[in-house]
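DNA-binding response OmpR family regulator (Microcella alkalica), 123 aa
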Amino acid sequence: MARILVADDDQDLNDLVTMKLEAAGHEVVSVIDGENALSRALADKPDLIVLDWMLPRRNGLEVCREVRSDPELSGTRILMLTARAQEVDVERAFAAGAEEYITKPFSPRELVLRVTTLLSRPR
């Protein structure tokens, strides 16, 4: 299936998302901070990044913008998975280049469905 990078500093949540996506047949790499998220994205060229907003060392919006500005990563899908639920936050994430936005708490089933849908869209 797809190569997916999961970036969330909550290790339990990171493990849950990784487990659900692997069960859906995806190859998953997980990190717990924004700096490592960007490094792994550049090294691995994932098909999709599941990105928390509030990450240490570099927040998710910064990572999102960096990914979008890199020509080698231009086709990478980005799904924000975050506790930030204000309308202005959603707008900022989409403006930074996110293509999907899910707020925590979330349904793992919905996450897998949204990932599948996002990956099936033309780039």
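The longest strand covers residues 77-82. The mean pLDDT is 96. ok done for today
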